[in-house]
Every structure is written in C-alpha cells, then in structure tokens.
Amino acid sequence: MIVVMKSGSPEAEINRISEELMGWGLTPEKIIGQHKVVIGLVGETAALDPLQIQEISPWIEQVLRVELPYKRASRQYRHGEASEVVVGTPDGPVVFGEHHPLVVVAGPCSVENEEMIVETAQRVKAAGAKFLRGGAYKPRTSPYAFQGHGESALELLAKARQVSGLGIITEVMDAAELDKIAEVADVVQVGARNMQNFSLLKKVGAQPKPVLLKRGMAATIEDWLMAAEYILAAGNPNVILCERGIRTFDRQYTRNTLDLSVVPVLRKLTHLPIMIDPSHGTGWSEFVPSMAMAAIAAGSDSLMIEVHPNPPKALSDGPQSLTPDRFDNLMQELAVIGKAVGRWQQPAVALAQK
Amino acid sequence: MIVVMKSGSPEAEINRISEELMGWGLTPEKIIGQHKVVIGLVGETAALDPLQIQEISPWIEQVLRVELPYKRASRQYRHGEASEVVVGTPDGPVVFGEHHPLVVVAGPCSVENEEMIVETAQRVKAAGAKFLRGGAYKPRTSPYAFQGHGESALELLAKARQVSGLGIITEVMDAAELDKIAEVADVVQVGARNMQNFSLLKKVGAQPKPVLLKRGMAATIEDWLMAAEYILAAGNPNVILCERGIRTFDRQYTRNTLDLSVVPVLRKLTHLPIMIDPSHGTGWSEFVPSMAMAAIAAGSDSLMIEVHPNPPKALSDGPQSLTPDRFDNLMQELAVIGKAVGRWQQPAVALAQK
Amino acid sequence: MIVVMKSGSPEAEINRISEELMGWGLTPEKIIGQHKVVIGLVGETAALDPLQIQEISPWIEQVLRVELPYKRASRQYRHGEASEVVVGTPDGPVVFGEHHPLVVVAGPCSVENEEMIVETAQRVKAAGAKFLRGGAYKPRTSPYAFQGHGESALELLAKARQVSGLGIITEVMDAAELDKIAEVADVVQVGARNMQNFSLLKKVGAQPKPVLLKRGMAATIEDWLMAAEYILAAGNPNVILCERGIRTFDRQYTRNTLDLSVVPVLRKLTHLPIMIDPSHGTGWSEFVPSMAMAAIAAGSDSLMIEVHPNPPKALSDGPQSLTPDRFDNLMQELAVIGKAVGRWQQPAVALAQK
Amino acid sequence: MIVVMKSGSPEAEINRISEELMGWGLTPEKIIGQHKVVIGLVGETAALDPLQIQEISPWIEQVLRVELPYKRASRQYRHGEASEVVVGTPDGPVVFGEHHPLVVVAGPCSVENEEMIVETAQRVKAAGAKFLRGGAYKPRTSPYAFQGHGESALELLAKARQVSGLGIITEVMDAAELDKIAEVADVVQVGARNMQNFSLLKKVGAQPKPVLLKRGMAATIEDWLMAAEYILAAGNPNVILCERGIRTFDRQYTRNTLDLSVVPVLRKLTHLPIMIDPSHGTGWSEFVPSMAMAAIAAGSDSLMIEVHPNPPKALSDGPQSLTPDRFDNLMQELAVIGKAVGRWQQPAVALAQK
Known about the structure:
4 copies of one chain form a homotetramer. Chain A is an alpha/beta fold. The first copy, chain A, has helices spanning 11-23, 50-54, 114-127, 151-164, 178-184, 198-205, 221-233, 262-269, 278-282, 288-298, 324-340, 348-353, and strands at 2-5, 27-32, 37-42, 60-64, 85-89, 92-96, 103-107, 131-133, 167-171, 187-190, 211-214, 239-243, 274-276, 302-306. The first copy, chain A, has an 8-stranded parallel β-barrel, surrounded by 7 helices. Chains in contact: A-B, A-C, A-D, B-C, B-D, C-D.
C-alpha cells in the first residue's frame, strides 16, 4: 500500500499519519520528493481497504494498493504453475487445464424431457463432447417464463449421464437445492447472475464437487477472481472460470460482448482453467462457430456450446442453440484449429487402432 | 408481437408461419407492403419470447415485442395511479409515494456495536430521518473483508429501533436468514448484487414485509422492473425501487454512475415508489450532498444516505459515509430544496404548535 | 510517478532501472519493504507515459502516476478559485461561473428558417434565456439526414442575435468553417463527437471566442479535462464544460445516461464553469424538466435546453425539444429551485422597480 | 416503419395520423389487433427518423424501423457478395477481402526517424507483412505528449515504401493535410476518435485512395456502418473496417475490450473487408499473439500489429508494440492458424520452387 500526500502537507501531519498507521501494525516508510511525500506501508496490508486509510487525513491525496487482492486464485499462489481440475465422469476422469486437450461441454439450455436430453447427450457424445450441460433450475428474466423442471429434470440428467457416459454440468440457483444437484452433477455451475451471491459461493466452496463459475455481466476480471477466491477460501480448490459475454453499450446484433481477451489475461493472473461459452456470448447460433474457433486459437481450455434437437421449439435460448447436425460439423471445424494448436484429443478408438 | 419478413419471402413460407403461429393460439394478421410483409400477432403474447418466434423460419427478419414484458409493475396496471408503500414503524406509519413527503433513510453501512448503532439512530432521528439503515449481513467483494456481525447485529438493530422509534431497513443475502431478518426489519432490502437472484426474489415476495429492491450494477430499467415483477407476482405488493449507481466506463472519480434520470423514467413506467442512494451512487461523502439535492429536485420519493459516527474507523464504506454533524447540515440543505418542491414534511412539533 | 517492483526483483536490476531513470533526468528514491521494493520518481514526470517506464524491465509490476495529467484545467492551477467566463452579448456581458447566477441557453437543434429561429429567439429571451443555441452545421449519424443549412443559417443566427439581444452558441464541425462561425457566434461549440478531434481543439484554442466543450459519449472525466487542456494550452482560457449524457448499457428509455455527478466532481477537479444539457442527456422532452431541476440543485452553472416552435416538424431532434410554451413553464419551475439555491438572476425590470 | 398505437387510441386519432402520414408520401396500412392497433408504413422510409413520427401524436406508443439505415454498406447492396478492396503497392496489388489470403499490416505507432522506420519496414516485410503502418500525425490524449513528426515523417514513410516495397497506411487527423498524406499513403486511415468526424469522412470519401475506418471507442456496429456509409456515399467504394477495441467497464488489465464478434456480425451485415487490431485492442504486447490467433480463426481478412525496434524507447504506444524478433515468431504462429483455415498466402518463392 502506498500513501501519496498532497503537496504542501505539513510535516506534523505526515508524522501523525505515520504514527496512526504504526498503531495498525504497519511499518510506514517515507520518501520525500521534490513536490510530494509518499509513504510506503510494509506489513499485512491485504485485508486493508485503501479507502479507509484515505480517511485518516484530508492531506492524503491517494492510497494505492500494490498487492493483488486475491491470493489463492493468483498464479503466484501456485508459483506460476497452472492447476488441473480433474473431474470424474462415468467414462473416466477428464482434466481441465492449460496443458491438456480442449474439453467440450454441450447440451441444451434446459432439460425438457427424457427423450430430448438423452438424444442430445448421445449426439454430442458421438461428436466428441465430454460433458452434457442442461438446466434443471433456470434463471429467467421474467417470472412468467419457463423456470426449469427442477428435481425431475435432475433425474433425467442422471439418466442421460448413465446412458451416455458424459459428465454432467448443471446450475445451482438456490443453496437449498445444492445437495440434490451435487448428487447428480459432476460439476456444479454458478451462473452469471449469482457470481456475487456470496452466500452461495461460500456454500459451493464448502462441498466437494468442482465448480464452474460464470463471469457476471458487469464483473471486472478482478471481481471475478475475487468470487473464485470465495470458493477457494471455503476449501474447494476445483474452480473453472467461464466467460459468457459482458454487457456493453452495443446489444443490437449480439446479446452480449464475448470478451476473448480474458484468455491471455487470466492465463497471466491465475492458475485456474478457462472455459468460453460462445452461445451466451453472442446469443445467436450463427455467430457461435466463428467465436468457438477463435476461443480455441486464443488458448481456451474448454468450450461450452448449446445444442438442442429442435431449437425453434426450445423452451429457452433456442436462438443460440445449434442442432446436433450443425454441432457435428462444428466439431470437425474445431478439430482443424484444435489440432493446429495441439489441443485436440486423439479419439480413443483411433489411438487403439494404431 | 410483430413479425417482419425478409424481402422476397415466399408466400408459401409466410402461410406456413401463419399456420404454425395459429397452432400456438395466436391470430396472425398480414400486412403486405411494397418491399416487405409484416405479420401482426394478436392474442396472449406476453409469455412468448420473440427469439423463439424468430426461429420458426429463416425468412423472418425480426420479431418485435410491442407489449411491456412486466405487468404488475407497470403504471398501467394501476390505471396510471402511483402506489403507496405504507411501512409501520414504532413511531407510526410512514408512507413512501409520489404524493407524500420525502422519506429519508440514514445510517451506517454495517452495524458495528451497540453504542455506534444506537448513537447513529438517535442522531439521524433528531435530524429528521424516518428509517435507520444498517447491515447485519454484508456483501463484500473479498472473502477476507468484514462480513457483518450477523445475528447479533440484528439484535442491536432491534435495540436501536426501540430506542429511537425509527423503522429498520436491512439487507438479506441468504434466504435461510430471511425469517430472522424479517422479525427485526420493517423493510427488507435486496442488494444490487442479488437483484437477479431469482430464488431470493421469490422468497421475499412470499413474505409480508415491504421490500427495498436495489438496482443491479448493470441492470437495465427493464431488468429491474422484471425483478420487481418477481416479487409482485409472488404476492408482495410493497416494493420500493432504489437506484444506487450503475457501472460505466468511468470509475476514476466516482465508484458508480448515479443514474438520476431513472426518476422521470420510472415515474412514467411504473407506479412503484423510488429511492435514490447517493452514497453508493458516488462512493465519496464529499459528492453526496450535491447528488442528494439533485435527487429531490428530480422528484425522488426517498433518499438513503450513509452516516457513521466516525467514518475513518468504519468497518466498511467509510469514505462514502457522512458524520452525524455533516448529516445535520445536509438535512437543512435538503429542506430548502424539499420545501421548494413541496415534498418536505413539516416537523411534528411545528405542526403541534400551530 | 511510483515504480512498484515485483517481489524477488534482483538488486542488480533495481539498480539498473534506477540508473536508466536517472538518464531520463529523474531522481529515483528507493523504499525497501518487506515483500516489495518501490521506487519513487522525483522530477519532471508530467510528460512521461507510465506505460513507457513499465517497459524498461520485466521486473516492474506497476507504474503509478501520482500527478494529474492536466495542469491548466486543474483547480490547483488557479489556487482553488473558480474561473469566470465572461461572454459579450448584444445585451451586455454574461458571466458563466460558480459564483454567478445560472445561465440558460435555449433554442432549436438546427436553424431551419428565419421565421422559426427569430421567433424561438424572442420566446426564449422573454422566458429568461441569455443565449440562443442553433446548429448551422449538424453532425448526423446518417449521410442521408439533414446536415444543416450551413452558411445561410449563420446569417439567420446573426439576424436572431440582433433582433433578440441574445448571445449565440453554435457548433463548429470543420476547422475550415471556424472563421465564418466565429464571426457570428459569441461562444463556439465543439460537439461530443469531436471532443477528441485534436486538430479542431488546437484551432478553437488559437482563436479568441469562448469555447463550449461537450463531453464525448465515452469520454472519462480525465479525457474531457485533457481535451479542455488542449484548448487552454493553445492560448484560449475561456472554456465551458458541457455534460450531455454518456453511453451506457441501457438505452431503451433514454438516449444517453445524463451523468449529473460530474457537477461535484468537476467542481473539485477544475476551475472551469459547468453546463448541463438535459435535452441530449435524456433524448426525450418529457424527461427534460426533471433533469433540468436536478442539474440546478446539483450546482450546475448553466443549462442548455432544446426549444423548437413545432417539435414534430423539426428537421432534427424533435423528440427532445420543448415547445416555447412548455419552456415558459419550465423556466418558472426552474426559478423555484434556482432561487432556493441562490443561483437565480433577479429580472432586470424587477430590480429597476425596487 | 411500423407505428404501434397505445391501447385505447381513439379511432379518429388513428385516422388523423394515417392522413398526416399520407401527406408525407407514405402509404399507411392498419392492422387492428385485440389490444392494439398497428400501422405499417409503406414507401420511402429510409430517410425518416422514427422519433419524428413518434411526435405526431401522444397516442403513438412506439415507432419501429424495420429497414436498415445504411444502404451502400449493406451486404444486400452487393446481393450478398463480399467486396474486394484492391490496393496498389510498389510490389503489386494486394487484395483485402473474404475470399483472399489474410493481409498483415505491421509497423510502429509513430514514425520516429529514418533508421527506425526503414529497419522496421524491412523486418516486417521479411516476416510476411504487406503493409507498413506508421503515424506522421498522432492523436494523443495529452497536448503535452509527442504529436508526431508530421510532414517530415511522411517523407520517411515514402522512403520506407520505396526501399521495402510495402504499401503504406497512415492516419489523417486534419482534412487540411489529406492531400499530402494521400500522396504517400496507399491507404488513408481514419482513427477511432474521428470515426464520427463527418466533415473528414466526407473528404476522404471524395478522394480516390482506399480508406481504413477504425471503429470508435463507443461506436455501435450500426454507427460504424453509418460512418462507412458517409465515405461510400461520397463516392469512394474502397473502405476497410478495423476493430480496435471498445471501451467497457473493465480497463484494469486491457486498455480496451477487443470485440472479435464483429467478425461474424459484419460478415452478415456488410460486404466490406474486416481488419482486427489486437495491439490497440488489448494495449499490451503480451496479449497480442493470443488475440491475433483468435482473429484469424474468427475469420478476419486482415490484421494490424504494432512493431517497434525498441518498444521501451518508443515515443508512443511502446507497451503494446512487439519487437521485430517477436513479430517473426508471431508470424510463424499465425501461419499455423492461417493455413488451417485456408487464409495463408503461400510465399512467392516457395510457389516458384514447386
């Protein structure tokens, strides 16, 4: 923490401030410049609020934090190494991480009935996905819109998991439902609208299933890493960060603005694995392939793509869902980029045949 | 709902779409223009998602909603009349509404100890506030920051209520704590970060205490009214909307951008009472008076202002808190504007003396 | 300027950096903390780019500027005093400034014909305005929209000026037209879209007429003050800053988001007078009165309001224009607030009669 | 254009509106729905402002445009075909377009001296770039920052062009300098800050050199296409659109938010070629490679990358510039993606050798 004094600050005031800060257990060190005096604060400053120090004296011009406010989420916390999030699925463990093949998650926005979820699971599995996404509880802007089938949808996800061998990723909206969800889900998702629902973050952090943390619509990267820090601090080290588009001034042609630059930025700041969701990121299925390609080239560890057997009839998010056929094609297009950057998994069968 | 067809759409396709929409229970009516065909949809379209209709055919260029997506929150729902939210307090009912005097809510960000909360309550009461704000459960960006004293703080609020006669407004972050909070609070607050925590909205909507709904950092006015609609649809008609600043590209000198234009906009769209929070809106106590004055002149029904007996020592949000002395002065400044616009309550004593 | 080194930076590197910075004419002073080393830079750092220093070494974590990047625009430049911009008009000098009565500027978006501009001038004069606004050259999003009547409109403004006694404020879009415009205009306006047209800023700074500088749609307050600095540095000390709404994520009900908090923020940072334009700020005439009232209460020095004799027939910006009758009423409403805060000019007649 | 009437609109008023609109040369067609009446307007509506129609009657709820406001820039204008912008360079014509190899533009932010610009030109040419970028006139936030060497820098660009065989792209900030710039430049750049400097747009549209139009910081895609429309309408059909990052709420780790989704969106809306500038888009050289890879995978037609022989000594934008060595490596990385998507030019030599 660095305290910058206004020009002309009286020496007595600078001394008074230094003493007060010593009382807080800090070691202040003065630099006397030509126009200004600056006080460097040495000690445990991570829990301090710069704004609080500001209030000590009207002669303080600015208080600047030079340490990161997150710790467990920082890349330094693992000495620069990426972490791996290993998720058990019926077909064996799948690893999310910088040095592993791209993991594709696919499926419908919401679980509508057994036939559609099982069929979708089988189709996306065949195309190369490792996880099935599908909402049992749906956050909807309108109270009059379909809110998800709830508990019965969880059963259908369990069925689809068993039949397809895919892992399951589904969203928790209410801590009261967490146990039921965690019974079925291999990864528990916290949605964008709940990214700063700190009660929920503490609770998903206190249970053992890996957590997919979507970025809030207006969350800075620092806000997002602080939300991850809540989960990590509560004891759960398995967090995957998912970018799904941010809210900007232009929403005419895309629902959100997909911020792909998070890939290199997060890579620098954190050890946690990164997922990109181009379906929510753009809101329109026709823009998904281009952004999915870009995400792989940018270095994403994972992709989440909405697939629905009949998008026009989908109970939610139809316009951003691909058909299974379109998803098959996309996977072939993605393979081209994935292989070019060395992040595409060789099919097991092909390997066995060699 | 209006469906705009692409130029050159085949007549057969237009007929097919019309038939499909009839199957949805709607009455389509065609207008054949020079370049385009447009289909007007008559019937119950409120629950429909325009995007879903879009998906029926690639020949559809746009689907435009012409009805409001919110109903109970709309001004029309009350035939143009403003609603009144009447809150019982120890000193009698206080009314929030367009045709009533401005209601001032004041108090610290968080309840720190008995002395500070009682002292603050007495000071803000003396200055003319009707409600005490104070957090027992605090949403904090960092898991390492002070999270509020929880249940014990609720007891202190109850004490301050009893001593001062003020009503209490405090935030609920977790539905599990709602009952305890509603026992003490006269108004239950849903914070900006939980504005789209739909599970929580349903629960505060299903209990009887009035709800203060803060606008989310990146919530459009429509999102905000839809969040209010969740509460209204769950059966609670007593919702107050509180603007507390939105997130924009400029955060160097203010923490948020206080959007005062919500006052005339909400007045037009909804019957619900409006509160402005210039403390969170600007983030700095020195900017609070100017924005509080502006809020009254703009026509706000209520103000929420942070007051702390010793801001530099506050456990949270010190920089945006006024001292009780500064708050006394501010109330006098506000009275000037409040009287000018006819929204200032005559002090009870003065009335009695007449 | 403060250079924060990464933890574990080698001493040799810190010394190398210090030497390099001495070569730039700066005096580096080290503070050695528990985890970090910080280098304070003393000397002429105003022209330096923090990012450039960052590049000296990969061991540099952050470079923080502690000086303001603007100088002539800063409040300190005038030792905390507000500046006054005195504008000569046919009816005598009008002063824009913190310690002077509110100045109201009114008129149509664009000058359409002699009758309308003269009539509008007379009406707004009668209601209490001191300046007539009206565009001869109009920045329009579409090349197919009305672009202003240009030179002939300047003649009509000169006529309206003569007839009404009002000062004239009109926009310059092209430096080639500056001379002609400055012949007629008492204040030359630089529009929001040209706020960072640095060539134009230099040219309006090199001529003698006062300049009204509108804030760019996505300009931070610092960007805006730096744009003012261009004009001041070119030799013209008479700059008025005009807020006209910024671009945010919500544009459904208002065209822009009027950022009234600039009033207290600018008051703190700069000595320059402040104007608020609620017409562009909201985009709808029905929201103008509420925001104009708020602007005065917030402490604005001036207001710019669009008035058109027949808004539905206006060639541009009709929906945000008031009729002259509505403007008359508004001036009476504004007087109530203006008087309450002591910023309303006593009518000359009234004074004479005393 | 579609006019939506408020519920309960009197029939007489609907008829009056219809008649008024007929007076404007339009053919109104009514649809009478259950709750609402909607009037479809047939005729030449492109030049009409929806807001103007809105003003005809207080009974009008909304006016919705269903036609695009841009014409020459639209994909339909070329019947769905992409356009090609062919630029003559000393080494022969280079084509920008959807069905052509990726064109790489590289070079420093500003031209500093002969040695640096010639050296950079030779290095980027050797690595595969087709154009040299370099500023003679620089838009800088501060009037005290280096503003470019102006005319003498143009001579150096001419020299570098001759020596290297590269085409030249350089920015025009002032119409007065356009002729001199167009003498040297093969492509004239309009910068982000001047995207809505309509005077300048008209002038670059009236000269024959191709124009690179950067997206404004807060320009919607529609604003951007309308700016292109100004150039096209003035007679110059050769416009390239360059995304360079937009301004959002998060600017802590990147200077702007690079909006890569413009690639598929523009592809759908317009026939014009697309360029991505990851250097300004992110502001930091370390993030450039990842975003450059992503841009190619997304389908961009061109890339603009800042390269400086000694970034820490650059007079502007050092932190976002790559060294020539780093650029060499990057071109090899880009080739991998470029070949995978079939957009990489085979080197002439290699082709000759086959």
